Amino acid sequence: MKTTAIYRKLFTGLALVIAAASFTSCKKNTIDPSGQFNIKVVNAAATSGPQSFTLANSVLVSGGLSFGDASAYITAPSGKNMVMEFKTDGTNSDYATGSLYTANGVSFTVYLVGKGSSARVKSFEDDLATPNNGKVKVKFIHLSDAAPSVITIKNSAGDDLVTTLVRDISSGYKYVDPGTLTVQFYGTASRNNIGNFDVTDLQAGKIYTIYLTDSASGSLLVNKVLHN
Description:
Number of helices: 1
Structural class: mainly beta
Number of strands: 16
CATH topology of the largest domain: Immunoglobulin-like
Largest sheet: 4 strands, mixed
Helix content: 10-25%
Strand order of the largest sheet: 4-1-7-8
Strand content: over 45%
């Protein structure tokens, strides 16, 4: 009986320790007061309406961020498990939320994506090292709910730019010629062509994200974000 009582006390104590550790690990908005990072905010949700954006209870974009818009980079305190909130203008209701973990000195771009129960906030770290030799540095992000979950991207010659790009994931950086980049999107499993687009006015020495998203009617769209 004594042994049973001792084990019961040990298990109770252990449960309290685990619960306390879980509470600590789930603590939101752990800010590094001495650290900073850069954040760019993009509205890639066609049906969202103009948005504001809040990070760790600090309003970084006060409103008016419409579909296709991107903010400039904003300097903000870095931290862990920082809550990101997009809110439709004129309301205090979240359109979508997410969490961001950052290190000091890095740059992130966050995207509002989707609608209804599929609305979400996705974040991607940016490499802002400038391309040389007259090239353009681009990466691709698949943010479409209408497209297959895994896609392949080809150029106008039919050569692969990116293979097996998964929804809500970013590709690595590619170096392309300035001007117009023709991109062809295929379902990786079906191999069916799902859309062809011209990405125009790419400038030498610049860095872009090219993202696939959905229009309000559900058709596919391609937009670009300039990072430098």
